[in-house]
Design goal:
- By secondary structure, this protein is mostly beta strands.
- It has one domain (about 30-170).
- Helices cover about 15% and strands about 50% of the residues.
- It contains one helix and ten strands, in the order αββββββββββ.
- It has one helix at about 5-25; strands at about 30-40, 40-50, 75-80, 85, 90, 95-105, 110-115, 130-135, 140-150, 155-170.
- The strands form three sheets. A six-stranded antiparallel beta sheet has the order 1-2-3-6-7-8, with no helix packed on it. A two-stranded antiparallel sheet has the order 4-5.
- β1 and β2 (about 40-50) form a beta hairpin.
- The protein starts with a helix and ends with a strand.
- About 25% of the residues are buried.
- The mean pLDDT is about 90.
- This is DUF2911 family protein.
- Pfam families: DUF2911.
- Keywords: Signal.
- InterPro entries: DUF2911.
Length: about 170
């Protein structure tokens, strides 16, 4: 192999490496997030894509009322508990679930679906539901730019834009 050819191959490999490195450094629009906490002795882990408001109207527009939403971005949000817990007074067995929300103007339906590995909510099968409960969203004290979940002592709260959606857990 000639020196000239070796140099061209070397320059090409450096260019490929630099391009791959540059793409790896790009921030995702809705990065994956995970939050873990304990409620009543149960370890709860929520994994979700965290989109930003970016000046958009969220509830009733980007996330339409009356439609199943993945409760995050990209893959369906997952909710995992290592022990049986009670959600809004109803039992949820230990396990991993897809976590969906159907927002309404003054309420939200929370769904725990046994088919946790799915993209979005496009193929959510109601026959695979483990639990469905209704909750009341609250107006948040301030704008929450990035969707977040918090595991508190007696609830899990989804916060985004001007809503907090608390779900009682025991």
């Amino acid at each position: 192999m000639t020196m000239k050819l070796q140099r061209k191959i070397g320059v090409f490999l450096v260019a490929v490496f630099m391009t791959a490195f540059a793409h790896a450094q790009e921030k995702k629009a809705s990065p994956a997030e995970t939050v873990t906490g304990k409620i009543n002795g149960a370890t709860i882990t929520i994994t979700y894509g965290s989109p930003s408001v970016k000046g958009r109207a969220i509830w009733g527009e980007l996330v339409p009322y009356g439609e199943v939403w993945r409760a995050g971005a990209n893959e369906a949000t997952t909710f995992e508990t290592d022990k049986e817990i009670t959600i809004e007074g109803k039992k949820l067995p230990a396990g991993k679930y897809a976590f969906f929300v159907i927002p309404e103007k003054d309420a939200a339906t929370i769904i725990f679906n046994k088919e946790w590995k799915q993209w979005g909510a496009y193929k959510m099968d109601a026959k695979q539901e483990q639990l469905r409960v209704k909750v009341t969203p609250k107006k948040s004290a301030s704008l929450t730019e990035k969707l977040t979940y918090k595991i508190n002592k007696d609830n899990v709260t989804l916060s985004w834009e001007n809503w907090d959606i608390p779900v009682k857990v025991k």
